[in-house]
Design a protein that fits this description.
By secondary structure, the protein is of the alpha+beta class. The chain contains two helices and six strands, in the order E-E-E-H-E-H-E-E. It has one domain: RutC-like (60s Ribosomal Protein L30, Chain: A). The protein has a six-stranded mixed sheet, with helices on one face.
Length: 126
């Protein structure tokens, strides 16, 4: 049975989708852009935006009964692949223990609200 993940500690969905879904022992997040959960504002360079996207992702995972340590796979969407190294440095701070998740990173033409980065994940429940 699937269940919707809803939390005020991550930005609300800006369309007809859920922040995340649980099903069985899986926790699947929607892509998390670097919007501030309280104001919806997106600010800063790729470093600040990656940190906010991962903070939002962490909040969705925790609301779904998981955490970053239980992530199996992430997908990182970048508006400019030249930002890869800076994104990767922040990403390494969040995924710094144990087995690192599998990951894809792709450049896209544009992201919602003109964000520089968006990150989604598939995790197992704790």
């Amino acid at each position: 049975m699937k269940k919707e993940i809803k939390t005020e500690t991550a930005p609300a969905a800006i369309g007809p989708y859920s922040q995340g879904i649980t099903g069985g022992n899986l926790v699947i997040s929607s892509g998390q852009i670097p919007a501030d959960p309280k104001t919806g504002a997106i600010e800063g360079d790729i470093t600040a935006q990656t940190k906010q996207s991962l903070t939002n992702l962490k909040a969705v995972l925790e609301a779904g009964g998981s955490d970053l340590a239980h992530v199996l796979k992430t997908t990182v969407f970048l508006s400019d692949m030249n930002n890869f190294a800076a994104m990767n440095a922040v990403y390494a701070e969040f995924f710094n223990e144990g087995i690192k998740p599998a990951r894809s990173a792709v450049e896209v033409a544009r992201l919602p609200k003109d964000a520089l980065v968006e990150i989604e994940a598939i995790a197992i429940a704790k």
